Amino acid sequence: MDLSWLFNGPTLRFLAAGLGTTLELAAVSIAISFAGGVVLALARLSRFRPLSVVATIYIEGMRGLPVLLVIFFAYFALPHMIGMKLEPFAAAVIALSAFTAALVAEIVRAGILSVPAGLVEAAQSQGLSGAQIMRIISLPIALRRMMPALVAQFVTLLKDTSLTAVINILELTRRGQIVYSQPPFQPMPVYALIALIYFTVNFGLGRIGRRLEARTA
Amino acid sequence: MDWSVLGENAGALAHGFLVTLEVSALALILALALGVVVASLRVAPAPALRGAGAAYVEFLRNIPLLVQIFFLYFALPSVGVRLDAFLCGVLALGVYTSAFVAEAIRGGIAAVPRGQLEAAVSSGMRFATAMRLIVLPQAVSKTIPPLGNTTLNLIKNSSLVSTIGVLDVLGTANLIGARSFQYVPMFVGAAICYLIVTLPTALGVNVLERRLG
Fold first, then answer.
1. What homologous superfamily does CATH list for A12-216?
2. B45 Cα to chain A: minimum distance (Å)
3. A191 and B163 in contact by Cβ < 8 A?
4. How many CB pairs under 8 A join A and B?
5. How far apart are CA B8 and CA A58, in angstroms?
6. B4-212, superfamily in CATH?
7. What's the pLDDT at B213?
8. Listed residue (A62, A145, A148) closest to A101, CA to CA
9. What is the ipTM of this complex?
10. A123 vs A121: CA distance, rounded Å
11. Does A19 touch chain B (CB under 8 A)?
12. Å from B165 to nearest chain A CA?
């Protein structure tokens, strides 16, 4: 079988650029969803009732929706609501971050709740304020404990970036479609190659996660 | 924004909702059946079987579901296998989810102390019998919460069949939204349909987690 139409410099560079977009989309969304997730988790744990209710509704509602719906919403519906056009990349980042933040929030919350009460009480008895205890004691310990779950969540996010192909982001999956929509029109080798690329990246990430798990357990 | 579009298309949306439930139910049956088989491979005494089970799980878990759906729908016809979109959706979703089902079951089995299996085998029970009578009954309670989460994800992931033209609830909302330019009401309608199923399921999983955990 002659695969020189696929394994040549320009085509591979075209696909590599798609992998670059996939990783960029994932990295930006990971950063935003991590920050958003920590804020949401703290809001849900807050003793100020209205704040914790709003955070809970956001988290539980978002977790009940398909991420594809959130992506469609950000791309097609959100511009109508805010009255301004959104670049597809911006819509994709908003959707993936808004969705993943809700899942990260639950991981962070579980991590904070798993910090032994005695540690928090000891800090209180030494006169630390609630915010200080959170910043110096609870969050650092929680962060270490939740690393494995976070890595797993980010593998899921990386897979979810493929969904942005449907709003025409030129990431790996979309570029694969473009490659086989040209002669010799052979989707099979293209999908095999793309699957292998996703597998390698995600399997590698998963391995790192497991090593972290072994170290922190 | 014109919310009346939601009322006018309630029938179509309800039909799409039924398609979502149908895809989910069929894929879940497939995922459970395959998942049990793969989980038994994962704990089998023969290393070759364990390797095959692990390869199956890692392969499916690490490739985006969308790529797997597209593979069935766009790539298989090039080798002469033509399946309709609905079938592609159910197959891809079921096979993808079976990897997570297998992991949930394996996790449950691993939570039962190894000594119990060894004790049963050393007192003359066969591996399969010891599994069935000693290990599996105890594993079930550890398996149900993660299986609930997997089912939840399956229902949400069923929305991906809309990308190959199946008119599930998301596909229907998208289609009517595009025709009427009333995306906001249509997507809100679709979101409500998903939440009707996912919120009670999530609540049930939480209760089970607390009771069994």
1. MetI-like (1.10.3720.10)
2. 24
3. no
4. 112
5. 29
6. MetI-like (1.10.3720.10)
7. 60
8. A62
9. 0.93
10. 5
11. no
12. 12
B157 contacts A188? CB cut-off 8 A: no
Interchain CB distance below 8 Å, B62 and A166: no
Q: Which two tokens stand for residue A203?
A: 């399997």
Q: What is the pLDDT along chain A (217 residues), one digit of tens a residue?
A: 789 999 999 999 999 999 999 999 999 999 999 999 999 999 999 999 999 999 999 999 999 999 999 999 999 999 999 999 899 999 999 999 999 999 999 999 999 999 999 999 999 999 999 889 999 999 889 888 898 889 999 999 999 999 999 999 999 999 999 999 999 999 999 999 999 999 999 999 988 888 877 676 5
* Shortest CA gap A184–chain B (Å): 11
Q: Searching chain A, which residue's CA lies closest to the CA of residue B198? A: A64
Report domain extents, chain B. Answer: 4-212
Task: Please give the structure tokens belonging to residue A183.
Answer: 């002669």
- The reported pTM is 0.93
Cα–Cα distance for residue pair A19/A170, rounded to 1 Å: 9
Q: In chain A, which residues have their Cβ closer than 8 Å to the Cβ of B103?
A: none
Quote the tokens at residue A213: 């798990």
A61 in reach of chain B (CB within 8 A): yes
Q: Which helix (H) or strand (E) holds A205?
A: helix A187-216
In this prediction, residue B44 carries a pLDDT of 87
